[in-house]
Amino acid sequence: MKKAPAKKAGAKRPAKAVAPAKLAVRPEESEWTPEELQEVLTELHEHADRLRAELREHEEEITVLLRDSGDGAGHDQADVGASSFERDHELTVFNNARDMLAQIERALERIHDNTYGVCESCGNPIGKMRLMAFPRATLCMTCKQREEKRAY
Questions:
Q1: What are 21-49's pLDDT values in tens digits?
Q2: Least C-beta-crowded within 10 Å: which of 74, 111, 120, 124?
Q3: pTM greater than 0.70
Q4: Which of 98, 109, 126, 101 is nearest to 15 (CA)?
């Protein structure tokens, strides 16, 4: 009997196939097919990989900007203002990418624990078509619209 090779520390685990029938769907929708679920998993993993690379680049840029910002001595106000704007912009982009990566990781967790497709607010199915268009969705359209109305 052969033993399975030991996992390397930090190695990516392959995306496990989840029984699509266990994922929530709206009454008028068909169950998730393995192909549909694999499409969503592939998109989420590829997007996560792109974001991780983007985050590494932004970390390097932010490090350079923070190191070069100094105390402003010898720089005129326009230079200091431009540096501050650039640094703030990089931090904003970095934080947005980090938040999006967290949403993707949350979606992957929900797929693996079979809670993907269930609205986190009302508990009803989000809708397969919505999830295929926006795989990070955690709210059904009704709850999302309600949330957006409250924001105004």
A1: 489 999 999 999 999 999 999 999 999 99
A2: 74
A3: yes
A4: 109
How far apart are alpha carbons 100 and 47 in whole angstroms? 9
* CA-wise closest residue to 48 among 150, 135, 141, 151: 135
**CATH for the 23-151 domain, from 1.20.120.910, 3.40.50.300, 1.10.490.110, 1.25.60.10:** 1.20.120.910
For the chain, give the mean pLDDT.
83
b/e per residue, 34-60, with b = 16+ CB within 10 A? Answer: eebbeebbeebeebbeebeebbeebee
pLDDT tens-digit readout, 127-143: 999 999 999 999 999 99
Structure tokens at 148: 């957006």
DSSP state of 14: P
Whether residue 11 has pLDDT greater than 70: no
